[in-house]
Each structure stands twice: as C-alpha cells, then as structure tokens.
Amino acid sequence: MSESLKNKTIQGVSWSFIDNIASSGIAFLIGLILARLLTPAEYGTMAIIAVFIAISNSIIDSGFSSALIRKINVERADYNTVFYFNFVVSIILYLLLFISSPAISAFFKEPILIEVTKTIGLILIINALGIIPRTIFVRNINFKTQTKVSLISSISSGIVGVGMAFAGLGVWSLVGQQLSRQILNTLFLWVYSKWRPVWEFSINSFKELFGFGSKLLLSGLLDTIYKNVYYIVIGRFYSAAQLGQYTRAEQFNTIFSSNLTSVVQRVSYPVLSSIQDEPERLREAYRKVIKITMLVTFACMLGLAAISKSLIFILIGEKWLSAVYFLQIICFAGMLYPLHAINLNILQVKGRSDLFLRLEIIKKIIAIVPITIGIFLGIEYMLWGSVFTSFIAYFLNSYYSACLIHYSTTEQVKDILPLFLISFFVAAVMWSISLLNISVFIILPVQVLLGLLIAFIIYEKTKLPEYLELKQLIFSIIRRK
C-alpha cells in the first residue's frame, strides 16, 4: 500500500471510527435515558415503521452512491442526475407511505401507526437531499466533516427526544428524535459541502450508473427486507412489548457489530476501489483489512455476549431482562457481519454487481427457513436459525471473492480462526464470572477488566501480525491527533 493511500486510509479509519463511536455512543446514552422513560411496547411501535423507512431508503438510493464512489472520473452531470432521481423518488415513496398508513396500522393492530407513519415518513425526503453531499465526502475519504455533522445532529436530536419523553409524549419522543436528527444531518452536510445542484439530467449518465447500481439496488432491497423481516414477524405474530425487547437487544448489538461493519464498508470500499487494477496490492490490502477487522469484531461481539445480563440490568433495568437471551444469540450472528461486508465489497470493487445480486437471492431463499421457524416455534428458534444462515452466507460470500482476488475461503478461515479461538476463550472466562452469587455492580467491572487483561496478555505473548498491525495503526492515529 503506497504511503499516500496508507495515510488516507488511516485518516479515514480514524475519523470514521470516531464518527461511529461518538454518534453511536451519544445515541446509546440517549437510548438508555429513553429506555427508562418509555415502555417496550412504545419501542416496538417505532420498530414496525422503521422497516418501511429502511426499505424506502434503499429504493431512493438505488445503488447510485456505490456506483458514484466506484467510478474513477465523476462528472458534474453524474451528481446532478442522481440528485434529481433521488429527490423525485423520495417524494413518490413518501406519498405511497402516507396513503398506506391506515393499512399498515390495521395489519399490525396499532392505531397510533397511522399518524406516526405520516410524520416519520418525511425522513425519506430529507435523507434524499443529503445523499450526494455525503457521497462526495466518502469519495474523497473525508470522514472528518461527516463526524462533525453526526455529532451535532446526534447531540441536538438526543436533547429533543429526551425532552419530549420527559413531557410524557411516549412514542412521539422517538419520532421527534429521529426526525430532528435527519433534518440537522442533511442541513449541515449542505453547509459544509461546496457542491450545489444545477438543473441537469443526463440519460447517458443515468444508464451507466444505473447499470451498475440497479443490481446493488435489488441486492440492497433483499438485504434490507431480510434484516427487517424479523420486526415484521415479531410485530405481527407476537406483541409490541416482545418486539420492543428484541429491538433493545438489536440496539446493543449495533454498538459494535453494525458500527464496525459501517466503518469497514465506508473506508475499505473507496480505498480498495482506488487500487482495483493492481491485483497483488488489492489482495494484500484486503487480507490485512479482514484480519484486523475480525480481531476487533470477535473480541467485541463475544465479549458483549458474555456480559449481556449484567450490562442490561445495570443500564436499562429489570424490565428489559427478556432482551438478554436475544442479545446473546444475536451476537453470534453479528460477529460475522463485518466479514460479510468486506467480502461483498470486493464484488463491488471488481464491478461484479451481478454476482452481488445472485448471492443475495440465494442467501435470502435460505433465510426463509429460520423466519418460518420463528412464526411457528418462537423468537429464540428464529434467532438461532439466523446464526446458522449467517455462517452459510459467509462461505457463499467468500467463495466468489476468492475467485476474483485469489484469496480462498480456506485461507481466510486459517487467518481468522486463531482470533476467534482467543476471543472465545476470553469470553468464556468473562461469562463464568456471571455465575458467582455477587452483585451485578461488582460482576460487570470484574468481567470487563479481566477480559481486557487476559486478551492483552495472550496477544502480547503470541505477537500475531494483525495485533501488531492494529497496535501500529492505533499509535499512528494517536500521534496524528
């Protein structure tokens, strides 16, 4: 990896990591306060409509962001064409959501969903206005500005949400928080961005970008529907309170799994795209990304599963303890999410959005099994089924990426297996502390400190290359800051 690219990568990783950790940390702290003030049923109500928002946002983007990031030379017409497409589609989808709100409410048997859907749906239009400025920052590996924007919007919207919750507005405090966050996020992206749209729409540009992006659109839709279908199944066949418990478990999981995945995707995609025509450099850079990412991911996700009971009890109270078992299962599936993302990034870097789409179709067909199990046997069985399908998905993803850059699944497993075994051992020791008959306020700090100490000793003794590389990366970031 060249020095300039390495410097850009370090800056991108550091600022993207700060962005995700800071904004998620703030959101997490706000969530702790809101969890004390709101009920599981109110969280469940909000989770239902989040499904429709997520699916709509995938359609609005339509894979154009990835197409623009991958394209070597982007022209003014490309940005303007995508901007107007995003904006028009967002208006159409909001109107459809507005009209469909009574049907959504009737299906889930939640009357309040009518007004909630009509209000929160405005996020679609607001988000569409910020897609191009955000894409330009990502293309330039400029995550510093995005970090500033995220912090401003996260803190401000958190204050709005908590204030509304204290005022007794229930689920509307969650609506207010999300809506104000998206408004501020888009507003400040425009403030910091030099780009401004002009009236221009190129059919040729649309065809070129959509040719690549359309397959990512279908893949993204399948993935979004799959990730959110659990909300639909639980919301329809169980209760809003049970859905709220699942939602809180998923939010704890998001702290590490989704944020790590997001950092890896945001930084590795533009970096790997810039060396897409240099096979050896691409392979080595890809291998380093996988090993360093999974060292951190295994440690975080297995550690989170080990401390989940004491963590949830202390942070949000006894009424949320049903979320503990959900979280422990989700962690085993979530530890592979960053690995999925890295393997799929290679398909995009190599321009094989057709393989990307084929994989998504195959994996989602397989995923029908645990979803069906959830309907008839229970939520826990559905989640264990998702763990099984997550492992199958990894082998499918890695098979195709291996063919493109000659880094086989066997080689990948050999590279990451020692990291998994170390983290599993450390997590087992941490979990065993929870069996002691002492206060959870003592158990939690002992678990965390003991886990950190054991992991540090093992990695210092073994001196695995990825551990040394991660140490060097951390020290580089500290020196720069």
Report what the structure shows:
This protein is mainly α and 481 residues long. The chain has 2 domains: 1-237, no CATH class; 240-481, no CATH class. It is built from 18 helices and no strands. It has helices at residues 3-37, 40-61, 64-70, 76-108, 113-120, 123-139, 143-166, 171-192, 203-237, 240-273, 279-316, 323-334, 337-349, 353-376, 379-405, 409-433, 440-462, 465-480. The chain is globular, with a radius of gyration of 22 Å. The model has no long low-confidence stretch (mean pLDDT 80).
Layout: helices, strands, pairs:
Elements: H1 3-37, H2 40-61, H3 64-70, H4 76-108, H5 113-120, H6 123-139, H7 143-166, H8 171-192, H9 203-237, H10 240-273, H11 279-316, H12 323-334, H13 337-349, H14 353-376, H15 379-405, H16 409-433, H17 440-462, H18 465-480
Helix pairs in contact: 1-7, 1-10, 2-4, 2-5, 2-6, 2-9, 2-10, 3-6, 3-9, 4-5, 4-6, 4-9, 6-8, 7-8, 9-14, 10-11, 10-12, 10-13, 11-12, 11-13, 11-16, 11-17, 11-18, 12-15, 13-15, 14-15, 16-17
Q: Please bin the fraction of helical residues.
A: over 70%
Number of domains: 2
Number of helices: 18
Q: Multimeric state of these chains?
A: single chain
Largest sheet data = none
- Secondary structure category: mainly alpha
Separation, N- and C-terminal Cα atoms: 22 Å
Average of the residue pLDDT scores:
80
**How many distinct beta strands?**
0
Low-confidence regions: none
Radius of gyration: 22 Å
Strand content: under 5%
Outline, from the CA principal axes?
Answer: globular
Give, in order, the helices and strands. Answer: HHHHHHHHHHHHHHHHHH
